[in-house]
Amino acid sequence: MKIKKRIFRTIAYIPFIVLGITLIVLSIKFSPTYVYRLITMNVADVYDYKNFENRKIREAKNTKKFVSQFKEEYVESLFDDLVTNTGFKSFEEWAIESQTTALIVIQKDIIIYEKYFNGFNRDSYFHSQSMAKSFISFLIGSAIDDGLIQSVEDPITNYIPELLKRDQRFQKISIKNLLEMRSGLEYNTDLIPFTNIHAPWHDEAVGYYHPNVRKLLLEDVEVSSEPGKDFQYSNYNTSYLGLIIERATNLTVSDYLEQKLWSKIMEYDALFSLDSKKSGFEYMPSRLIARAIDYARFGQLMLHEGDWYGNQIISKNWVQESTQENKSIPRDIYPKWFGRSDKRIYYNYQWWGHVNKDGTFHFYANGNLGQNIYINPNKETVIVHCGNSLQYYSSDFDLWNVSLLLD
Question: Are 406 and 398 in contact (CB under 8 A)?
């Protein structure tokens, strides 16, 4: 009987032993800081920037202010189907329960709706999540305009030559491959068995919590397939773009973003979270922190193809090239949910897009937990939504429907 009890006790300890070994291995491979962040922060949310060192990006000294002519009832009526389909009785109830934090609509250069919810206001910081990727794309275009990057066709090894020492195949990866998420870089997407939870070594987590992403890019990320062949949404693509910007400009990405965008058009300052104070490398894919109204300003700039009230901030050609569908890319490289018919999704240069049945298109910056800068060129409209949940909000899909209802 005593032997049986000992066996049962030993079996009971096995999960803890496995957990302990896993944490030790992760600490050795990625660092103790990575393991600490993984345990204490767990799933990413919009308050994460408070747990990281942040670099400040200064606003414009003088900038054009939007005119407001509010049409609150009209805008909220566009969400009627969403409100009804999610089981709520009013727009206000939906906004609160969906954890919406900001909603701004600008049409023909006029703010027709601007409201904040769940304790947020105009002065609050809003976590960009993956909307940051579209800002990094903007900086690549700026560096090309400045002659610091020759072309999107440049091999990434022109700017990061040390990658060649690890694998000659890096030379085949172009900046364009990174922008299109078609680089062929290895990206681990393992889940914990029998769950939908990322494994502790999932690259989404590794890149997000690692205290030295620059080192990770230079020493650990591998090439797994032929560049330009397949679509794989990977945060490493955007991080490499940030490293190229750093190398090409001899500036931090925050400083270059301030120089080329923020100090020219933005109303408020912003933050960019770092991997660590020691490394000082911005987490390019998702930790830009700004005010919702400045996300709207960026949307307005892109709507007008880089022109800010007579000042061309970035070339018109870059805006068109980066935000419109590249029809030469075979549709079958994308997941089926992108669609194959006249109404479909596309991805280009760190921007998402929708093609409508009538041939018009919308494009948008898209981030987890409900962050969107949604641009409808045909209706001259920019919609910004920020939030902290996708339970009652299907992100860009809902704004696609809302945008189609606009007068």
Answer: no
Structure tokens at 244: 């190229």
**pLDDT at position 70:** 97
Task: Look at residues 103, 123, 132 and name the one whose alpha carbon lies nearest to residue 385.
Answer: 103
- Beta carbons of 107 and 406 less than 8 angstroms apart: yes
| pLDDT tens digits, one per residue of 135-161 | 999 999 999 999 999 999 999 999 999
User: 292-332, pLDDT tens digit by residue?
Assistant: 999 999 999 999 999 999 999 999 999 999 999 999 999 99
Query: Which fold does the domain 31-62+128-290 belong to in CATH?
Result: Beta-lactamase (3.40.710)
- CATH code of domain 70-117+294-407: 3.40.710.10
What is the pTM assigned to this prediction? Answer: 0.94
Output the pLDDT for position 27: 81
Contacts of 237 (CB under 8 A, 6+ apart): 177, 178, 179, 181, 183, 185
Closest CA to 264 of 303, 309, 296: 309
Sorted by where each begins, the domain ranges of the chain are: 31-62+128-290, 70-117+294-407
Task: Report the distance separating Cα 136 and Cα 236, nearest Å.
Answer: 13
Instruction: Please compute, for residue 246, the number of CA atoms within 13 A of its CA located in the half-sphere on the CB side.
Output: 16
